Amino acid sequence: MKQMSMDIFDQGSETTPASRKPLAERMRPLALEGFFGQEDAVGPGTLLQKALETGELFSIILWGPPGCGKTTLAGILAGALRSHFVQFSAVLSGVKEIRAVIAEARTQQQYGKQTILFVDEIHRFNKAQQDAFLHHVESGLITLIGATTENPSFEIIPPLLSRCMVISLKPLSDDEIGRVLRRALQDSENGLGAENLEIDPDAESHLIRLSRGDARTALNNLDMAAAMIAGKADESTPKRITVETVERALRKKAMLYDKSGEEHFNLISALHKSLRGGDPDAALYWLARMIKAGEDPLYIARRMVRFASEDIGMADPLALGVALNAVNAFQFNGKPEGELALAQAAVHLATAPKSNSIYVAYGKAGQAVEKHGYLPVPMHIRNAPTKMMEEMGYGKGYRYAHDYKDAYVDQTYLPDRISGDVYYEPNDRGYEKTVKSRLDRLRRRKGDQSAGKSPDGADPD
Q: Taking a C-beta distance cutoff of 8 angstroms, is the pair 384, 394 a contact?
């Protein structure tokens, strides 16, 4: 096992020359001042901030997507607390290595030093491996910082999880990724500042989109783009990183897309119409096109939730649940895993039977409100919680539907002025055909009862 002390985060502390390290490794911040994002985790008033102030760190599990700063944050915490820091990957280490760490921790304890054990990809440890350091976390011999991209509640054994604070980290925002890139271009010591580089706004935006909230990916891509133009200008003339530079370096075409411009609306319109037209292939294409171009997946998901009611409605009542579950699944899994849930929802919505009856009916109801204003609620369907209201006639004559056949009774529920209005008119597609059959039957019974007839041979009153 390769053990590393806290100075692994110092530039050039290992045998590899600093200039040959990946840009993402060279730019790893050593203090919270240079750590962008994650305000919910490390900002003022948070538990981690208080731990740094008091010098007492508790065991934690850092849960978040790749490139969000889990390893960097672990190093910052260890450095600030001046602890003995050991780092290894759960992929390469086993129980034997854990025992060696425990032995070293006991030695460090004799010198008054706390040991912080950082386990990358801790979800890769099996139960026996997690059990191996459970007691030592409990006793306080080691302070554990585990990093995982998987949900800890599924991957970490409950006894260990109960002794750790789970801190959720998010993908970096576009603005934060932009700050990471600009700092790397300006930093002459560890970054690219000595290479006299400038970057076009479109090229920076392309790098941000490709990063998908991953700072490591953003910096490595910038490094490759910078390598494409190395030595192409004299020292007095800045070398420009353009969109074409990034495309050639990464072989990823920059897509024409402006999240606030015409193309934004063109693409969401294309997705909506493909869903409405029942074309799952086109729906998947436009979905992938927007996501790869940098659109917020939750914006797309919200539009699909709307579509489930507007264009499908009662023809497939499950469609709304599918769309909402896709939102939850994406929020739970994040990128890129959660994108598959959006794809599944898109296919379901595209292939579901269609009806805009709910959309039309709600529009008609809204028009009635606009036309007639706020009409009074009929007295018989008003509630009468007090004796005075009962004496005023509130609830008088109300008939309880469950006392009648099929739990239906002819009774007016609309204000008198519009009592004959019909807003919802179901069609014959999908489940709505069943709804239409039932509603037609009930509406016929309503007419019969209004005429004094009783389909069950009894006085409806």
A: yes
Model confidence at 10: pLDDT above 60: no
Share above pLDDT 90 across residues of the chain, in percent, rounded to a whole number: 29
Q: Which of 184, 182, 176, 178 is nearest to 23 (CA)?
A: 184
* The one-letter amino acid at 362: Y
The band of 61, judged by pLDDT with boundaries at 50, 70 and 90, is very high
Q: Give me 429's structure tokens.
A: 């597609």
* Integer CA distances (angstroms), 386 to 61, 376, 379, 409, in order: 56, 19, 14, 26
Report helix, strand or coil for 241.
Answer: strand
pLDDT-based confidence at residue 50 (cuts at 50, 70, 90): confident
- The CA distance from 316 to 82, in Å, is 60
Closest CA to 84 of 118, 135, 35, 132: 118
Give the pLDDT confidence of 180-200 residue by residue, as tens digits: 999 999 998 889 988 888 899
pLDDT for the residue numbered 324? 96
Residue 14 clears pLDDT 80, i.e. is over it: no
> Which sign, positive or negative, has the C-alpha torsion 381, 382, 384, 390?
negative
- 84-89/197-199 β-pairing: unpaired
Residues 272-307: b if buried by 16+ CB within 10 A, e if exposed = bebbbeeebebbbebbeebbbbbbebeebbebbbeb
Taking the C-alpha atoms of 357, 359, 364 and 369 in order, what is their torsion angle to the nearest 10 degrees? 140
**CA 274/CA 296 separation, integer angstroms:** 19
Number of Cβ atoms within 10 Å of the Cβ of 270:
17
Contacts of 45 by beta carbon, 8 Å cutoff, 6+ apart: none
- DSSP-derived 3-state class of residue 199: strand
Give the residue-averaged pLDDT of 407-425.
88
Dist. CA 117–CA 143, nearest whole Å: 6
Confidence band of 249 (pLDDT split at 50, 70, 90): confident
